[in-house]
Automatic annotation (TrEMBL):
<feature type="domain" description="EGF-like">
    <location>
        <begin position="292"/>
        <end position="332"/>
    </location>
</feature>
<keyword id="KW-0732">Signal</keyword>
<feature type="domain" description="EGF-like">
    <location>
        <begin position="6"/>
        <end position="43"/>
    </location>
</feature>
<dbReference type="InterPro" id="IPR001881">
    <property type="entry name" value="EGF-like_Ca-bd_dom"/>
</dbReference>
<dbReference type="InterPro" id="IPR049883">
    <property type="entry name" value="NOTCH1_EGF-like"/>
</dbReference>
<dbReference type="InterPro" id="IPR018097">
    <property type="entry name" value="EGF_Ca-bd_CS"/>
</dbReference>
<keyword id="KW-0325">Glycoprotein</keyword>
<keyword id="KW-0677">Repeat</keyword>
<feature type="domain" description="EGF-like">
    <location>
        <begin position="85"/>
        <end position="125"/>
    </location>
</feature>
<feature type="domain" description="EGF-like">
    <location>
        <begin position="251"/>
        <end position="289"/>
    </location>
</feature>
<dbReference type="Pfam" id="PF12947">
    <property type="entry name" value="EGF_3"/>
</dbReference>
<dbReference type="GO" id="GO:0005576">
    <property type="term" value="C:extracellular region"/>
</dbReference>
<feature type="domain" description="EGF-like">
    <location>
        <begin position="46"/>
        <end position="84"/>
    </location>
</feature>
<dbReference type="Pfam" id="PF07645">
    <property type="entry name" value="EGF_CA"/>
</dbReference>
<feature type="domain" description="EGF-like">
    <location>
        <begin position="211"/>
        <end position="250"/>
    </location>
</feature>
<dbReference type="InterPro" id="IPR000742">
    <property type="entry name" value="EGF"/>
</dbReference>
<dbReference type="GO" id="GO:0005509">
    <property type="term" value="F:calcium ion binding"/>
</dbReference>
């Protein structure tokens, strides 16, 4: 194998222009114009570093013969080759005291806080929310403006809900027995009332509720009943012999119901609220009994001529004399029988 030695072309006089430096390489050479220049067509030309993008995208580039300069644009900081965003909001106050500073790439923004209006830098004025739709305060709420905000205030008897709505407080539920004895709690809008319960009244502007005696009022109970006053109400009780059906008292028919006591040989007759016992025909009352009436001995029954009155239990019969016959309520007998009877009477 044959070894060859590199030829140092730079040893040849004037191989490169005098303004350059010859640099030997293995098998060749080049003419170096120095930093900031490029050798082309046997001449040194200025290298435009700005076109080559030697600066940061967030910097301005200024080219000069054989050199360049980079300067970060406003809102960025660095050496120009490297530029990072500068957080203006972390520096001295950039915005109004009532504004919010928001950092942006290379910049920042000032926005007035909620409840204020303005440019955010020099001016942020309070907004009076109460001037528009009462600030959203509803149902008897009062809007009170504050710096940068507002408040909804409720009247007594109301509670604020969701910061804008005044809701009535039901004192009858929230409080423990807000009313007195025999009073009824009734909630009203923003308050409550304590009228007397049914069956009670408040005499002459007094403070206590007194029982109403309903029995002193007319016709509170139906006919045939007693009225009993109780605390706050009353009771109706039907008389003996009557039964209530919810609205009135009906007479009880003791005779039909079998709820009576009558003596033997009598009939039960219903009367209003009670009953009576009537001895059957042919019987008459004797103390608590119905005994047979002897119509014949009392002469209560006129039997026709030529007959005898015969008493029986509860009845009687007119019996024609022997040999007679009863026709049309009269006893008919022959003259012979009459003669025999009269003769017998004379002998006796």
């Amino acid at each position: 194998m044959m070894l060859t030695n590199d030829i140092d072309e730079c040893a040849t006089p004037n191989i490169c222009p005098s303004t350059t430096t010859c640099v030997n390489t293995v098998g060749s050479y080049y003419c170096d114009c120095g930093s900031g220049f490029i050798f082309n067509n046997s001449e040194c030309h200025d290298l435009d570093e700005c076109v080559a993008g030697r600066c940061s995208p967030y910097a301005s580039c200024a080219n000069s013969p054989g050199s360049f300069s980079c300067q970060c644009t406003a809102g960025y900081r660095g050496d120009g080759v490297t530029c990072v965003d500068e957080d203006e909001c972390s520096l001295a106050q950039q915005c109004h005291s009532s504004a919010l500073c928001i950092n942006l790439p290379g910049s920042y923004n000032c926005t007035c806080q909620e409840g204020y209006s303005g440019d955010g830098v020099f001016q942020c004025s309070d907004v009076n929310e109460c001037l528009v739709a009462n600030g959203g305060c509803r149902n008897k709420a009062t809007c009170v403006n504050n710096q940068g905000s507002f408040t909804c205030l409720c009247q007594s008897g109301f509670i604020l809900v969701n910061k804008t709505l005044c809701q009535d407080i039901n004192e009858c539920k929230e409080r423990n027995n807000p009313c007195g004895l025999n009073e009824e709690c009734k909630n009203t809008d923003g308050s409550f009332e304590c009228p007397c319960q049914v069956g009670f009244y408040r005499p002459g502007g007094g403070t206590e509720c007194w029982d109403v005696d309903e029995c002193n009022q007319s016709q509170v109970c139906p006919a045939f009943s007693y009225c009993f006053n109780t605390n706050g109400t009353y009771l109706c009780d039907c008389w003996e012999g009557f039964q209530g059906n919810g609205t009135h008292c009906q007479d009880l028919d003791e005779c039909v119901m079998g709820n009576f006591t009558c003596p033997e040989n009598s009939t039960c007759t219903n009367i209003e609220g009670s009953y009576k016992c009537t001895c059957d025909l042919g019987f008459s009352v004797n103390g608590s009994e119905c005994l047979d009436t002897d119509e014949c001995s009392l002469g209560l029954i006129p039997c026709p001529a030529f007959s005898n009155c015969l008493n029986s239990v509860g009845a009687f019969v007119c019996d024609c004399w022997e040999g007679g016959s009863l026709r049309f309520a009269k006893c008919h007998i022959s003259q012979d029988i009459v003669f025999q009877i009269l003769t017998k009477v004379d002998k006796d």
